[in-house]
Amino acid sequence: MEAVTDEGPRLTRKGRATRQRIVEAAAQLMFERGVAGTSTEDVRAAAGVSSSQLYHYFASKQHLVRAVIAHQTEAVLAAQEPQLSRLDCMGALEAWRDLVVALQTQRGCEGGCPLGSLAAELSEIDPDARQELVAGFARWEAAIRDGLTAMQRRGELSARADPGLLALQTLTAVQGGLLLSQVRRDVDPVRAGLDMALSHIRTFLI
To answer: Domain 3-59 - what CATH class?
Structure first.
């Protein structure tokens, strides 16, 4: 039986699995078709659940979209591990660049960034979703910043460097590169964007 708390339903193992199946199905459909192009009926059919099951876990499509944002944030960050958590030297940054490029190569540059795609569609029409996307991108940016800060603390990066700004510039290069790679179906833009960002970081090496 599923107990209910003030924070929502406390799910059984089976309930968690069902909820996760719904979120994964919604995330895949929204990545392929967009949020507007994905109906709750589409999600229900893809997840193999009834309407009553879907609405038991998600009161509305908006609630489901929030869950998809959280899911895609975790998926995007996890796909970059273990490199993303260890960006504390130029070799590690270069290995991360290679991983990001390889991931796009595997996907044929289709779909772009799962978070970036959601941001492009939702930022102007759903303020709550936009804030959750801001938080997701902030986690990505923080991982880059933490690595650069570690380099600076070890004396490998000049005191003139601003790890926060460098992290923002690097993430901006990633997002712009992913968008152009999606449009062109070519990994060169994301590789070029990251190469540019890493070249800028090198100017602060000691």
So the answer is: mainly alpha
CA-based torsion, 7, 17, 76, 111: positive or negative: negative
Please check whether residue 190 is in contact with residue 104, taking contact to mean a CB–CB distance below 8 angstroms. Answer: yes
Q: Where in the chain do CATH 1.10.10.60 domains reside? A: 3-59
Reported as a single tens digit per residue, the pLDDT across 77-98 is 999 999 999 999 999 999 999 9
Query: Which pLDDT tens digit goes with each residue over 6-41?
Result: 334 577 899 999 999 999 999 999 999 999 999 999
In angstroms, rounded to a whole number, what is the distance separating the alpha carbons of residues 104 and 152? 30
Cβ–Cβ < 8 Å for 195, 204: no
Measured in residues, the chain has a length of 206
User: Do residues 87 and 197 lie in contact, with contact meaning Cβ atoms separated by under 8 Å?
Assistant: no
